[in-house]
Amino acid sequence: MRAKIFAEENRRWWTLGALCFALFMIMLDNTVVNVALPAIKSDLGISTAELEWTVAAYALTFASLLLTGGKLGDLLGRRLIFTIGLVIFTLSSLACGLSSTAPELIGARAVQGVGAALMMPATLSIISATFAARERGMAIGIWAGVSAMALAIGPLLGGIITEHISWNWIFFVNVPIGVLAVLAAIFVVPESKDTSREQRLDLPGLATSGIGLLALVYALIEANQYGWTSARIVGLFVVAAVALTAFVLLELHQRLPMLDLSLFRNGTFAGANIVAILVTMAMFGIFVFFPIYMQTFLGWSPIQAGAALLPWTLMIVIFAPIAGKLSDRVGSRWLMAGGMTVVAICCLLLSTVTLQSSFWNLLPAFVLGGLGMSFVMTPMSAAAMGAAPVAKAGVASGVLNTFRQVGVALGIGIMGAIVADRAAAHGGPPPQAFVYGLTFGMRVSAVICLGAAVAAATLVRRYRHVEESERALEAAA
Question: Mind giving me the DSSP string for 424-437?
Answer without folding.
Answer: HHH-S-HHHHHHHH
